[in-house]
Amino acid sequence: MKKLQLRIKDYDNNYVTLNNIRNLRFTLRNNREEIKEISSLGWRKALDYAGSRYITIKINGILDCMIADRLLHNSAMLNSINGYEINYGDEEKISLQCSVELYERYYDPAAFDNFTVTLTSTGVVNTFFLTTTENRDLRDVC
Fold first, then answer.
1. Helices (H), the chain
2. DSSP class of residue 51?
3. What Pfam families does the record tag this protein with (predicted)?
4. Residue 30: CB partners within 8 Å, gap ≥ 6?
5. β-pairing verdict for 126-129 and 92-106
6. Cα(106)–Cα(102) distance, rounded to whole angstroms?
């Protein structure tokens, strides 16, 4: 398995790469809206697809790029939405628009600067397989 990478789109639409990712956690959140006292089964079926669905990604690593630090810091402070790519596995990456829910940086004079970032998707999340040209929208995956 190759190293994990976090790529952050900068202000010029170029990607800045963080290579020293220690771990990464994906969480799919699927909050269904519960509505009571609807007698029609047709309404119930329609509401089964309602609610907020998003992916949360928590990443821990060693900060090896000051530009990436500045982009994450500014995105967290301004509550802005940026483009991100995450390369993981031998042949797979995802591309998504996220807001920074949490950004922590640990300063230690005796060690490397560590960071934790929690990203929350704000739109469609696409997954790409690098050995084939197949691109899939996660909404189409069963």
1. 41-47, 66-78
2. S
3. Phage_tail_2
4. 51, 53
5. antiparallel
6. 13
> If DSSP codes are grouped into helix, strand and coil, which group holds residue 138?
helix
Look up residue 134 and give its DSSP letter.
-
Give per-residue pLDDT as tens, 97-131.
999 999 999 988 887 889 999 999 887 676 666 55
With 0.85 as the threshold, say if the pTM is over it.
no
Condensed to tens digits (0 to 9), the pLDDT of residues 54-83 reads 789 999 999 988 999 999 999 999 999 999
Q: Whole-angstrom Cα distance, residue 137 to residue 116?
A: 27
Instruction: State the first-to-last Cα distance of the chain, in angstroms, to the nearest integer.
Output: 25
Please determine, for residue 38, whether its predicted confidence score (pLDDT) is greater than 70.
Answer: no
Specify whether the CB–CB gap between 82 and 98 falls below 8 A.
yes
Long-range contacts of 33-39 (CB under 8 A, 24+ apart): none
Nearest to 118 by CA among 24, 14, 44: 24
* Cβ–Cβ < 8 Å for 33, 51: yes
CA distance 24 to 11: 25
Total length of the chain: 142
CA distances from 35 to 17, 29, 30, 39, 54 (A): 44, 19, 16, 11, 20
